[in-house]
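Researcher: Quick test of sequence recovery. Tokens follow.
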């Protein structure tokens, strides 16, 4: 079985821009906001971390890091999470968040 980090379909969403006069990158701000968004959707649906991770085919630890805004978020994983949450506007919602930090 291929390790999920080695999957070529998992492209990093962020681009590494730094905000002016701040040590926090746009990537970090983006990751935090997307993580909070995923967590709020999961909780709104009454879904546990374990269940979402299983349905999205990602590890629980990785999902926890995503929800906490830590590390990289990969597009493939975001789409698997969205499918698991039955949120079809999810990609568009994430695009709107990205436009705040990368436009």
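Model:
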């Amino acid at each position: 079985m291929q390790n999920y980090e080695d999957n070529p379909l998992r492209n990093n969403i962020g681009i590494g821009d730094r905000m002016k006069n701040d040590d926090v990158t746009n990537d970090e701000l983006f990751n935090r906001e997307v993580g909070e968004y995923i967590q709020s959707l999961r909780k709104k649906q009454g879904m546990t971390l374990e269940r979402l991770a299983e349905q999205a085919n990602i590890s629980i630890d990785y999902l926890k890091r995503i929800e906490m805004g830590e590390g990289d978020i990969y597009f493939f994983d975001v789409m698997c999470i969205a499918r698991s949450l039955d949120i079809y506007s999810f990609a568009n919602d994430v695009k709107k968040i990205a436009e705040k930090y990368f436009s």
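The radius of gyration is 13 Å.
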